[in-house]
Amino acid sequence: MGTIAGIILATTPLTRPRGLVGNFLNLHCPSLKFSQFRTTSNTAMAAAPFHVSAAASSPSSAIDEEKEVTSSGKVGADDLLIVGPGILGRLVAQKWREEHPGCEIYGQTVTVDHHEELSEEGINPCLKGTKMTHKFPYVIFCAPPSRTSDYPGDVRMAALNWNGEGSFLFTSSSAPYDCNDNGPCDEDTPVVPIGRSPRTDVLLKAEEVVLEFGGVVLRLAGLYKSDRGAHVYWLKKGIVEARPDHVLNLIHYEDAASLSVAILKKRLHNRIFLGCDNHPLSRQEVMDLVAKSGKFSNTFEAFTGTSDPLGKRLNNSKTLQEIGWEPKYPSFAHFLESI
After folding, report:
1. Which UniProt keywords apply (predicted)?
2. Is the model's pLDDT at 287 over the cut of 50?
């Protein structure tokens, strides 16, 4: 196990420490004998920085295999594991707790960088590769493929932490739908064949793992909020070398989270759903709405592309009907009016 630096605990030998330090040790060092820690003053403890050595945050499997997560008791019927508790994952946690007060929520991350924030939000942090002493009834995987060399393998690891009783949900992308002529596209539209695109290959192979375990796939359109999304990126660039008539599809982060929670609660298996706001817009229409709103300081100048691919017009009416869900922001224009 990697060394823990800068921790001097003011505690009796047989007392497991509480608070942030205690939470970290409970999650990552359950086998430590606390009699090994030296006793000192509270002042010294407060002055000492709390951090984990580089070895402890290494992705090495040899290190990860020594870590273990334990719970304070038996797994609860509504407990949730979030793999990749970023913006979307934290919103899912918030909405899940609102509907399931008293549940335990765990957030699995690649590094310890945001563990303190997660703890403050009531999410028990744990590192990727950590051994779980029990499986969870609800698991959602919303980590991006950009930070791993084996995305399907990571999804499989998450599936192995699911006990099969509630739901296992994987948030994918609408990118695999084989449509690039600004034409209509819904849940049943064929996907890009394996081998044509590395980007869609990794998503489709991850989806195969989810369905193999009896999980559910939610293919999401472009996520956004006031300070994140395509419109923010384009505002910063000013001039973008992409065609203005390319149609894109959007869904607000809050709506993606509420749809995810609604699907988790259905306890479904081997299904594929689609998440969007059913109001596709061209790139130019998006930025025209941004300019008209007058709520952003930057000024967008132009799209200059002419030959890049077109997009697709998503429609998820089947998902809406089966799940019984409606978005808080039914369109990008509606969102802009609300801020």
Report:
1. Isomerase, NAD
2. yes
